[in-house]
Give the backbone structure.
Amino acid sequence: MRSQDIRKHFLEFFKSKNHSIVPSAPMVIKDDPTLMFTNAGMNQFKEFFLGNGTPVNSRVTDTQKCLRVSGKHNDLEEVGKDTYHHTMFEMLGNWSFGDYFKKEAIEWAWELLTEVYKIDKEILYVSVFEGNEEEEIPVDGEALELWKKIVPEDRIIFGNKKDNFWEMGDQGPCGPSSEIHVDLRSEEEKAKIPGRELVNQDHPLVVEIWNLVFIQFNRKADGSLEKLPAQHVDTGMGFERLCMVLQGVKSNYDTDVFTPLIKEIEKITGSTYGKNEETDIAIRVIADHVRAVAFAIADGQLPGSTGAGYVIRRILRRAIRYGFTFLNQKEAFVYKLVDTLSKQMGEAFPELRAQQNLCENVIREEENSFLRTLDQGLILLDQIMQETPDKKVSGKKAFELYDTFGFPIDLTALILGEKGYSLDQKEFEEELQKQKDRSRSASKVISGDWQEVNAGETEGFVGYDTLEAEVKILRYRKVKSKKEGELYQLVFDKTPFYPEGGGQVGDKGVLESESGEVIYITDTRKENNLIIHLSKDLPQDLSGTFKAVVNAARRARTAANHSATHLLHQALRNVLGTHVEQKGSMVQSDYLRFDFSHFSKVTAEEIQEIEDFVNTRIAHKLPLVENREMTYEEAINDGAIALFGEKYGDKVRAIRFGDSIELCGGTHVGNTADIWHFKIISEGAVASGIRRIEAITSEAAKDYFVSQTEVYSEIRAVLKNPKDPVKAVMNLQDENTELKKQVEALLKDKAKNLKGDLKNEIKEINGVNFLAKKVDLDAGGIKDLSFQLGDETDNLFLIFGTEQNGKALLSCYISKELAAEKDLHAGKIVKELGKFIQGGGGGQPFYATAGGKNPAGINEALQNAEKYIK
RNA sequence: GGGGGAUUAGCUCAGCUGGCUAGAGCGUUUGGCUGGCAGCCAAAAGGUCAUCGGUUCGACUCCGAUAUUCUCCA
């Protein structure tokens, strides 16, 4: 069965059991601070488990693209070494939100595997949670009884808390799980060791394929469990593993999910899969990683140096590294695989096809830049080896190479090994750990339990139409972090405060109690679909009704910037072409930032055209037309622009100004006239194929023009109001360089004369050409003069003194030969003479200077100089 | 968000613990030689040593801040 059909059959099966098929959520998570990537099928439904939202259908099924790069069962560094771990994978799942529970979940899972996919019942094992005495959780007897009806008891295994009790995190919904395992070993192997002894033992051919989680508890901050009012089912089946089972192969990489990629890698790199273990690992690493990276980029996540972008960069660099070392790829090649991937998976995931061009460009650029890093690192490593005669390279050195210059540690170890050097791995690990501890303590967040104040559900955001509302506090908690200190997070029954999202910053404002107490709301965010208000303090009395008031001026400026962002988007597509796609935006009160795909610099003329386009629409006073109750399809049919990598609900909000229609949850002005004016202040690149425009509107634009005008008039005033200021400045510059040249020539002339005069004053004393004199030159001039005289006269001993800005300066020059011959040291001499001018000094044997605060002593110092050659 | 590094000629970079009058290669210009594949030889031009401040007799070098950039960690 082809992988495409395996996926289809799964979804169809649950559709026949009254489940709605929903699309995969984006792999990159945008508005959940606790998670960077979707790492399990349940992520997009988290809000339903937490009770923060209600699903349209209580039965849902999907295939979810997931990314795992850390965690108990998957470390990035392990992927590729075996045949069954991945960074990016698909998770097939079926879900019940307070609907069916263990009975149906278990029976349907068995039916699908054995009757639809026709997997031999004899090779399947199931596990049931054995209970945990410490936490007083009983054995999952319910699941056990259900399984007993289907499976012979000798194929039911009891699992401990680690394997069979599922938790989302330290806090939140959790519950026991039942896993289905499959034994793919040969008959001989099975005869030697029974399959049930290998379940959960990390055997590559005895693997878990489906995990059925029964969510029935909530874990509180103190570690205790409470029963949930509604019970849920959350299942996940690894798509790639299922394909392995159904296609009768022994490795995920032998399924048709991976074979096209592997063939292409063989072709590009001229290597063969299946002959050499090192080569195989490299090929698997690349095949796996290119999927993860391409999907992430298609979801809008570019490789970068922070957060999710950094994870993507690391994955891609690992692929490059393996290609570099084991497949001898010294030039960019990973990007060439995107085409194959897009052909193969573009049907199930159309974003891949749409973003193919971008994916290729971004990956190629990233490859080139990393190959440069590697080159640089190789040179540095060579240097380290030269500086290490005992051939024992310290972990500190290797860490520096890794930490500061980005040179991978495994490459360091490999090269050192080849050259017969050893590496202190332990010290390296220690250094790494230190760095981790530093970072962790800097970003640690401690959150307390939610304290309920008023019961009830929250209505959510009501601030499209109003900036003020009478609200009640539903719950609050205290959060402590190094960055922000102690803060309170408050949840209201409804709120006019816009939470940070869709690129727009969260609102600020105040909360007024009936008694007149005022609490400042410093920011508003969204977590698991819950709107959270941040404040430094809590009101004295939490129970009453409060007036929540948004900072209106700030919101108005933000709204102007957000609406301008839409017009800018439209302008870009008009002026530059429809290949322009939004790749990110940041809408604040004082400026806006817009990233978009475009492959060349936007010219000054185009910038002008874009500004004009937007300002024309501002001048046309286009009213806001808002539709909050459209379906996604209706909006798209109307011509609305949706964003890749964005998760849309079943009802969307469309924002329209004239011909600009976008799906958007942000706040906007009522009429484009409220934007006043739009001005681009910068344009530049953020990544290959991605450009960034920064712009300002309304008051900020006014301020900009005012300050620019001020600077301009100041310049004019300084230049005495010339007709053409630009020409005036250019004249000044020309004149300046001309004068500089003249001064230089004059000074040279002067020095020449002075030099001639001084030369005549040189006296021979004891075979040494000696001169001690006060001159009127600065430190640089004296040095110049000294060396010039030194070039022309042998056996020279010079002492110059000068007064500069009320301070005394002495300098001493001694011909090199003379210094060596007579054992003279200018530095020592000048130090001794320095006491006459109340100062100190030093330098080399042949030239030294001293400074002091007593210019009156210069003459005395000069008189004393002669004794050094007597 | 936290740490580390870098910023020197048009380009790629040296310049060690403060003091050799800031250098090299490539490139540019000029002159000479030469029948090519990076032609050869000679000479010259080209630098606010990122910016600002501090320490010092003296700062490219040490310290602090800023900007830009690379990199690791979260």
In short: Residues 497 and 507 of chain A are 5 Å apart (CA to CA). Chain A has a mean pLDDT of 86. Residues 725-761 of chain A form the longest helix (37 residues).
